[in-house]
User: Fold these one by one.
Assistant:
Number 1:
Amino acid sequence: MTGTPVRLDLSSPSRGPRGKPPKHFVDLTPEQRIDAVTELGEKPFRAKQLATHYFTHLTNDPAQMTDLPKATRDKLVEGLFPQLLTAHRTQTADKGTTVKTLWHLFDGAKVESVLMRYANRTTLCVSSQAGCGLACSFCATGQLGLTRNLSTAEIVEQVRAAARSLADGEVPGGPTRLSNVVFMGMGEPLANYKSVMETVRRLVAPAPDGLGMSARNVTVSTVGMVPAMDRLAKEGIPVTLALSLHAPDDELRSELVPVNTRWSVDEAIDSAHRYFEVTGRRVSIEYALIRDINDHAWRADLLGEKLNARGRGWVHCNPIPLNPTPGSKWTASDPRVEQEFVARLRAHGIPTTIRDTRGSEIDGACGQLAAEEDE
């Protein structure tokens, strides 16, 4: 590949509709929730009742809050549970066990989430931004540009809706619980650090203040925003960190992932290793395999060497067959090339697992549904 790497300007204005979401119950801490209900003229214990309905019963429907007087529940829901997301379109694949939803936000912005049910777990991929400002060249979302950051409640609402769908048995296989959440949808999670971390806190907080999920079952992905990665390591919440690397050399990565012109391959890997040292959590390296671009055997060797230079046992690699987008010049690697890439990594002692590509027949790459609507 040739050409000058794109320089990233994180201060550049976002394009598209922008708005500040109305304050939602989920945006508030438990203490702030008590203040909010008392400001509406209700007793402080109503805050815990509302939290139980939302996080345990997974509802914001006043009709289902039968332990509250009708006038009280209507007032509280109207004041504290504004409608933030509307399901505009859904697509299913894998016999209904993969469900992709296009959400319209209150201001017309669009985001997507993907719910995937496996034999031993259920995973939701959530969006943290409407669009993305990092302009990774092979990414559907990156081509949309950034509209705005999502609020904490806008992200959590994606999770609650999925959890409720599973609890109600709407996904084939019978009623079940949501076990995993991955921040791998639209947007760069660490570019919306505050909302993402507040979301994580809601996910892992014990009931009734949160969903009571294990932090180990929450994955935060990043293209390598080093200062934010180092900050994440100090949060004291042992989520899984996933570094989207996509190339082991700066020349290529700067073309594929423009943020690399600010924080290099080695700087990103060093930060990922620091995360492991602080948290003890093994880091995941994400690597989209793109035909004739980054899938060369020598690049697998270079990646293995760089990871081993920081130590052993601290990392796991997830090569991902690229999910191509319509009109894109990028496509997935030849299966034989993919197998050789994996074999080279394993020869270096790097635990390596090919990522299961769910939903390829339903515009599975994040951003595709939103892009289609904008055409």
Number 2:
Amino acid sequence: MKKDKKYKEIMTAKELADYLKLHPFTIHKYAREGKIPAFKIGADWRFHRRYIEQWIRQKINYNITKKKKIF
């Protein structure tokens, strides 16, 4: 994935929400539930870009594999 200088290596929930085109509440919910790679600094969630991109690739691969099994 091409590096976009707008997004830092470590992102806040708001930055990640912008990056993924999701609502910040959804990002917080996913982080709390362990559905997205995240870590806390105090009360704030942070997201490492490399792990988010890896998570995205895993989701894409899962969806491709799932579709192949259907057809």
Number 3:
Amino acid sequence: MTKFKELGLKDEIIKALDEMGFEEVFPIQEACIPVLLSNRDVIGQAHTGSGKTAAFALPILQQITPKKGIQAMVIAPTRELAMQIAGEMKKFAKYTGIKTATVYGGQGMGIQLDALDRGVEIIVATPGRLIDHLKRGSIELRNVQHVVLDEADTMLDMGFIDDIQFILDLTPEERTMSLYSATMPTEILRLAEEYLKNAKQFLLDADDLSGEGIDQGYLVIKDRDKFNYLIDFIKPVKGQIIVFCSTKYRTRDVAKYLHQEKYDAVAIEGDMSQHRREQAMAKFRSGKADILVATDVASRGIDVPRVELVINYDVPNQDMVYFHRIGRTARAGLKGRAITFVSYSSVGDWNLIKRQIKTDLKDLNKEMGIEIKIPDPLKRQIPSRRYGGSGRSSYSRGSRSGGYGRSSRSGSSDDKGRDKKRYESRGGQNRYGGRSKW
């Protein structure tokens, strides 16, 4: 294995890496760092936990100069990811004299202006707030030498592509740029073609979708039974747990049920204020909460080394999302476990993901003796029963066999791109039954 000392990095950087226990480089670091140090652009495809941050951060720290203004810019889709990247870069830069500022929406502008006034060389930002600073003149990009787009596919999903193009058009033409993305949809490839020059591509995930070091299993069950099995799986766990849900509604419901069962759980989802999200993450990171319930987009940037178990409460909509999720466990070479709950309506999506998993995958139905009874969709009837009241679900705290009885609360109308107004006009009610796609 290649060691960081062999990459020609400054002694100040190596000293910080030694203190952090970093000695041998990960594959994406070994591939990208020499290329970026030669000032050539990079396109990297790598999932969470692969060491992306060091891959772009170390070349930046090697090549910029303290007290010479903003020379590097990293753009991330979410506040949590921006804060995580900035935190790592500060650790790497401990002995270099290079300062980093984090710029994101939801935090007071005054705090960020004070940090910028003290002088920084690296900006880690979310697109919207960065544009706010650019328009008011508190950030200028004329001396930027390095640009990084992290989680580019997520920025595409969140509608940030126009913002990214606006920002990149303000940077110098002579710059070194790297783009990292778990998936490479056409729009991202077009963006790369327009703004990157002679880029070296490293599609590492094409050969490394294994989830190595993670004990992976799946359970095919009725959607309404998921919560009962969730409790069964989390009871014996000593470390921390992350439960991933596909919608903000499901996230709220699962977190509420866990509270009712006397578990210390916190939630992160897109509608929460930044202050509440930071409070939830601080509680989880400090160990005051044992369980984090999160949506996919809101969860980007979660990096807690003690996570013992990841539960996919819902099957993700892409194979790479699956690997992003389970990559929250088995960090820094540790072992971890991941369990996916597969509702009957999600079996087809799960089968597509299974084909990409190149390590042992446990069929928990066989191990636990649970029979799969997927009904014939042509014979299924949709009852006319509705849940009334406001947009919140009614909860049944009856016997454990009752389970998670509002499975198709989902509707998740705005999450699935349906007409939100129509959803609200009927008081948040949803028809019970049918094919639930969370």
